[in-house]
Write a structure and sequence with these properties.
- By secondary structure, the chain is α/β, with parallel strands linked by helices.
- Helices cover about 30% and strands about 30% of the residues.
- The strands form two sheets. It has a seven-stranded mixed β-sheet. The chain has a five-stranded mixed β-sheet with strand order 8-9-10-11-12, with no helix packed on it.
- Helix 6 (about 200-210) runs antiparallel to helix 7.
- The longest helix is centred in the first third of the chain and has 21 residues, at about 1-20.
- The relative contact order is 0.12.
Length: about 240
């Protein structure tokens, strides 16, 4: 009887361990290249725990964030990790469209003294849908220059959302596509609540023409290891 009890307890412990191991970390930070880092947080979409990719860039004048964490519990841990690793503070954040996985941390960042930016179109949609709002807006394609680094904010049309922009960093040929671009491991188009399926392919083709042969293409969700996200997005749109 004692032996059976030990076996049962052992199996139970192994099951608990396996369940714990399946849970991803709440915040992961990956060094991409040079001064560029990808950070990933997680949140529920339906019943599935989905990774959300964002980025930050370290400059001589401080750190620039591309979008905010999706998981609100990771706002402060991300700031702490950046300061501990780089001994610099976040000074600027650019949101690439109005959905919560891109804007959820804007109020937090504003309270921390970070300058937050979005397009006017994104601000209007944030107000309309009750999402967090950037403090500053820009209209049209805009270049941000800070600490010797240049970030181009570009809008080529509707797709995942009416207001989705991308960020281009020419020094490393990096295209931060956000949710406009699907990961090569994606089997579907994800959240289509605001999508323009007719214009999305045209928007992607314009990006491919404007930024040919990027070294890195960072999608809003799932794996970013391949730089073929634009081509894969077109394939998914053709199937859809």
């Amino acid at each position: 009887m004692k032996t059976i009890l030990i076996i049962v307890i052992t199996i139970f412990c192994l099951q608990i361990k396996a369940q714990v191991q399946k849970q991803p970390p709440k915040l992961s930070i990956y060094h991409l290249k040079g001064d560029y880092y990808i950070y990933t947080t997680y949140n529920l979409f339906g019943k599935e725990l989905v990774p959300s990719n964002s980025m930050y860039l370290v400059t001589d004048e401080g750190v620039v964030m591309f979008d905010t964490p999706w998981d609100s519990t990771q706002f402060q841990p991300l700031m702490d990790s950046i300061e501990q690793r780089h001994h610099k503070k976040v000074v600027l954040c650019i949101s690439t469209h109005y959905h919560e996985d891109r804007t959820g941390g804007l109020d937090f960042l504003k309270k921390m003294g970070v300058k937050t930016y979005s397009t006017q179109q994104t601000l209007d949609l944030c107000i309309k849908h009750g999402e967090k709002q950037a403090e500053f807006v820009f209209t049209g394609d805009t270049t941000f220059s800070i600490g010797g680094k240049t970030i181009e904010a570009v809008y080529t049309g509707e797709g995942h959302a009416p207001d989705n922009i991308v960020l281009w960093c020419g020094d490393v040929r990096l295209l931060y596509g956000g949710c406009l671009v699907k990961s090569t491991e994606a089997t579907g188009l994800g959240n289509l609540s605001d999508a323009n399926l007719k214009e999305w392919p045209n928007t992607i083709r314009k990006l491919m023409a404007q930024f040919p042969n990027p070294a890195f293409v960072i999608p809003g969700h799932f794996s970013w290891k391949s730089n073929k996200g634009l081509q894969h997005t077109l394939k998914l749109l053709k199937k859809g």
